[in-house]
């Protein structure tokens, strides 16, 4: 019952990698929304403000963006890194207290500096507004750091997008309705951060009640904060220096405004790099230097940033003239340089994140050298060629700084292992750049090609289930986690050689569309027919097995070729059993009974957590009983009152449920679940002495079907295997009676019929899509049927919750689902 959806089982990787990839997509989605609103805001203001007013606004915005860039990564990233590494609530509480105090202190200092600088190009009132916006941004970033550190990235993404919407609406109101000009446009930045006030970090038990004392004695947090501030401060200066300089230097105002507009358009990759960094930082902070996840993060960035940069750099002047007034005639000339600079600056920001994640603050010397070269290139370019020369100089300075930092990083830390060479990403895009450059004189043809390129890029990044990062880390929130096994290279590849097949080698790109490995998987796992298989076919079958949570069964069918996978599964299962026994023993000692759902000790267990249901009203007591066992606690925002995830230092986490519910809507009554629960038994029929209970057969059947209907919209092969022994007439009849009592009888029968039909086809050896998708209409009908039942029984709020969530949740799951 994972909130993010375990629709298709992914490669068994660490849970932090899984969250990072999914979180990056959420944050990147918010960044695209923010970018679209910001650029629309800037474009509208070019019409509403005169050239001098817009130049003052752009310079003020540059200062705000510069200080916000420091604020966004200094306090929150320090807090996120501390929360990710913390081993107790006391450490987390101290980190939050430190972040609050330093945010206020740092914000006050930054506000004074910004006010002094802005007096050089703006009035006193405008300078005061910019200073207030700077302080507001600093203070509210503590909430952002708390969300990032607890990896509530979806909530962070929503707040980020909401901030941009408020800035857009409030800014236009102040400019158009109240006539406040550039002062009103800049005041919107400080007002827009209000949503963060309502998502404040909670106090952790054991935290100091004298936060000033914490600030004074915790040198480790001071070093981390100063290191982050220094690194990100240099990046912020690199990002904003040219915008401020062009407003201060004695140059034509029209040329300066053109340069500022071109820079704003070219900074899209920098925001995308920020999204990837925010999502990957907690995971990278728990890993060693040179982890392969660094290559994954950079490739994820390049997948979307490179094509968008090519489109921006080749935009025809005829199209830009339709969006900008006549005073911005140089935008088309400057955009090729500023867009490329933005791409390089985003990559530079990622390398700084990689260094920060492993506490390598010594790279500051390299960054400062790069900054000096960048300033020299800017000034030299402006002296030699004015605004155009500044754009070229900025590009050369950024490229030089990136090369210096990248060479240093690879020399000291390595770069992990890429799934495929970066050349396979870069070279096609160079060809694309040439094609768009040739189409540039033909505005309409270029526009059609640009729309196609942008659409394909966004589809590959957001909509396509084949992740832009390696299969080993491509997953959504809550995907299964298990310790990675050792990498073993496959044999020469002759069929039936029996050489070990390493589970670290990625399957071919079209593996999920090839029926042969799926047929091999079905023969071995479902029909118990093991036939000779070559290494390549077995690798593809292993990828399909992981999507269906049956890699252990496949590995046992081919123990020699899949020895590494078998060892990996056995270690993951051992950790599961250990953590399950430890946690339930603690709960039993505290007088809290539990029912284990969606798991079976007789088989393998590669999922990322195990689900325990506790009696009504006992969820707080259960959390208290596991305080010493768990190292991290988190909740999902849609189920914060009914479910909590408790993560131990190693191994799978305990998912405590106050009820058998999905997204806060109970389906199977908890009282009846406990009243009918049984003690787990051995294969010989003898009862085990374990501390947990298991659902009776009819409850197990309904829980599997409800999980598919209300959560995943699929049934994978492991679930079909779990359902098969439950398909006895008496169990089915009782399950249907209980489903009718619970208000989802028709949907239960429909899902059951679909599962039975799929099993029959598998028995006959016919092709079946795995995981098996449930029709959208079946899930929509389940929501309507169940919410109607809740409404008829007087649970109006719960019925309204289910009805309002059903359609967006179904659509979200359909978009996220990996279709074989």
Radius of gyration: 28 Å
Structural class: mainly alpha
Give the count of helical stretches.
28
* Mean residue pLDDT: 75
Beginning-to-end CA distance, first to last residue = 22 Å
Low-confidence parts, pLDDT < 50 over ≥5 residues? Answer: 1-14, 204-217, 417-422, 464-514, 683-687
| Biggest sheet features | 5 strands, mixed
Q: Any chance you could write out the topology, listing elements then pairs?
A:
Layout: H1 15-48, H2 51-85, H3 89-118, H4 124-149, H5 153-177, H6 181-191, H7 211-217, H8 219-248, H9 253-266, H10 268-285, H11 292-313, H12 317-323, H13 331-357, H14 364-413, H15 423-439, H16 443-463, H17 515-526, H18 535-547, H19 551-557, H20 563-589, E1 595-597, E2 609-613, H21 619-625, E3 632-634, E4 643-647, E5 653-657, E6 660-662, E7 665-668, H22 670-676, H23 697-712, E8 714-715, H24 717-723, H25 729-742, H26 745-764, E9 772-773, H27 776-792, H28 796-816
Parallel strand pairs: 2-5
Antiparallel strand pairs: 1-2, 3-4, 4-5, 6-7, 8-9
Helix pairs in contact: 1-5, 1-10, 2-3, 2-4, 2-6, 2-8, 2-9, 2-10, 3-4, 3-7, 4-6, 5-6, 8-13, 8-14, 9-13, 10-11, 10-13, 11-13, 11-15, 11-16, 13-14, 17-18, 18-19, 19-20, 23-25, 23-26, 25-26, 26-27, 27-28
Characterise this structure.
The protein has 820 residues and is mainly alpha-helical. It is built from 28 helices and nine strands. It has helices at 15-48, 51-85, 89-118, 124-149, 153-177, 181-191, 211-217, 219-248, 253-266, 268-285, 292-313, 317-323, 331-357, 364-413, 423-439, 443-463, 515-526, 535-547, 551-557, 563-589, 619-625, 670-676, 697-712, 717-723, 729-742, 745-764, 776-792, 796-816, and strands at residues 595-597, 609-613, 632-634, 643-647, 653-657, 660-662, 665-668, 714-715, 772-773. A five-stranded mixed beta sheet has the order 1-2-5-4-3, with helices on both faces. Strands 6-7 form a two-stranded antiparallel sheet. Strand 6 (660-662) and strand 7 form a beta hairpin. Helix 2 packs antiparallel against helix 8 (219-248) and helix 11 (292-313) packs antiparallel against helix 16. It is elongated and about 85 Å long.
């Amino acid at each position: 019952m994972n909130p993010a959806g375990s629709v298709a089982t992914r490669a068994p990787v660490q849970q932090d990698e899984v969250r990072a990839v999914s979180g990056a997509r959420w944050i990147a989605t918010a960044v695209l929304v923010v970018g679209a609103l910001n650029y629309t805001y800037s474009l509208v203001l070019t019409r509403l403000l005169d050239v001098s007013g817009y130049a003052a606004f752009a310079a003020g915005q540059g200062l705000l963006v510069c200080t916000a860039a420091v604020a966004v990564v200094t306090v929150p990233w320090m807090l996120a890194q501390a929360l990710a590494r913390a081993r107790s609530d006391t450490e987390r509480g101290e980190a939050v207290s430190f972040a609050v105090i330093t945010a206020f202190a740092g914000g006050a200092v930054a506000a004074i500096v910004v006010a002094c600088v802005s007096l050089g190009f703006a009035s006193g009132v405008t300078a005061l507004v910019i200073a207030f916006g700077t302080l507001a941004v600093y203070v509210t970033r503590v909430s952002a750091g708390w969300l990032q550190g607890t990896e509530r990235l979806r909530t962070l993404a929503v707040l980020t997008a909401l901030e941009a919407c408020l800035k857009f609406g409030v800014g236009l109101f102040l400019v158009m309705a109240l006539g406040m000009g550039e002062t009103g446009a800049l005041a919107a930045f400080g007002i827009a951060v209000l949503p963060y006030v309502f998502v404040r970090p909670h106090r952790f038990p054991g935290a100091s009640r004298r936060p000033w004392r914490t600030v004074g004695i915790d040198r480790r947090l001071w070093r981390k904060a100063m290191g982050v501030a220094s690194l990100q401060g240099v990046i912020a200066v690199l990002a904003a220096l040219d915008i401020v300089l062009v407003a201060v230097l004695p140059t034509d105002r029209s040329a300066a405004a053109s340069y500022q507009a071109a820079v704003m358009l070219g900074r899209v990759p920098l925001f995308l790099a920020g999204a990837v960094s925010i999502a990957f930082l907690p995971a990278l902070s728990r890993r060693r230097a040179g982890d392969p996840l660094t290559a994954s993060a950079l490739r994820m960035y390049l997948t979307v940033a490179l094509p968008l940069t090519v489109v921006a750099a080749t935009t025809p002047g005829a199209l830009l003239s339709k969006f900008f007034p006549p005073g911005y005639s140089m935008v088309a000339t400057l955009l090729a340089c500023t867009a490329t600079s933005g791409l390089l600056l985003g990559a530079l920001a990622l390398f700084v994140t990689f260094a920060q994640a492993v506490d390598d603050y010594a790279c500051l010397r390299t960054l400062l050298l790069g900054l000096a070269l960048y300033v020299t290139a800017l000034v030299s370019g402006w002296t030699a060629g004015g605004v155009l020369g500044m754009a070229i100089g900025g590009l050369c300075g950024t490229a030089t700084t990136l090369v210096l930092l990248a060479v240093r990083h690879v020399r000291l830390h390595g770069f992990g292992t890429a799934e495929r060479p970066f050349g396979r990403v870069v070279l096609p895009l160079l060809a694309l750049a040439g094609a768009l450059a040739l189409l540039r004189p033909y505005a309409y043809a270029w526009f059609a090609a640009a729309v196609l390129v942008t659409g394909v890029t966004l589809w590959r990044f957001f909509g396509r289930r084949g992740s832009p990062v390696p299969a080993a880390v491509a997953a959504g929130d809550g995907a299964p986690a298990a310790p990675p096994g050792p990498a073993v290279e496959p044999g020469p590849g002759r069929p039936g050689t029996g050489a070990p097949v390493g589970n670290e080698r990625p399957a071919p790109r079209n593996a999920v569309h090839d029926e042969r490995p799926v047929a091999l998987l079905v023969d071995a796992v479902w029909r118990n027919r093991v036939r000779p298989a070559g290494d390549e076919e077995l690798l593809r079958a292993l990828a399909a097995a992981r999507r269906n949570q049956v890699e252990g069964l496949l590995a046992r069918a081919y123990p020699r070729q899949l020895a590494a996978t078998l060892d990996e599964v056995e270690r993951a299962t051992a950790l599961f059993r250990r953590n399950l026994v430890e946690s339930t023993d603690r709960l039993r000692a505290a007088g809290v009974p539990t029912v284990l759902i969606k798991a079976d000790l007789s088989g393998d267990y590669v999922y990322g957590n195990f689900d325990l249901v506790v009696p009504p009203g006992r969820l707080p007591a259960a959390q208290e009983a596991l305080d010493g066992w768990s190292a991290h606690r988190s909740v999902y925002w849609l189920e914060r009152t009914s479910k909590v995830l408790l993560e131990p230092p190693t191994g799978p986490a305990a998912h405590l449920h106050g009820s058998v519910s999905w997204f806060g809507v109970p389906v199977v009554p908890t009282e009846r679940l406990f009243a009918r629960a049984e003690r787990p038994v051995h294969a010989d029929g003898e009862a085990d002495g374990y501390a947990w209970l298991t659902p009776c057969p009819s409850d197990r059947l309904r829980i599997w079907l409800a999980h598919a209907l209300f959560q995943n919209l699929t049934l994978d092969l492991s679930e079909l295997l779990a359902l098969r022994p439950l398909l006895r007439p008496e169990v089915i009849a009782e399950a249907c009676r209980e489903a009718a009592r619970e208000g989802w009888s028709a949907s239960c029968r429909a899902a059951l019929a679909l599962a039975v039909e799929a099993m029959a086809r598998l028995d006959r050896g016919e092709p079946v899509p795995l995981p098996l998708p449930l029709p959208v209409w079946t899930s929509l009908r389940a929501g309507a049927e169940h919410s109607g039942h809740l409404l008829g029984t007087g649970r109006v709020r719960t019925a309204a919750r289910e009805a309002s969530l059903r359609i967006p949740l179904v659509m979200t799951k359909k978009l996220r689902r990996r279709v074989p």
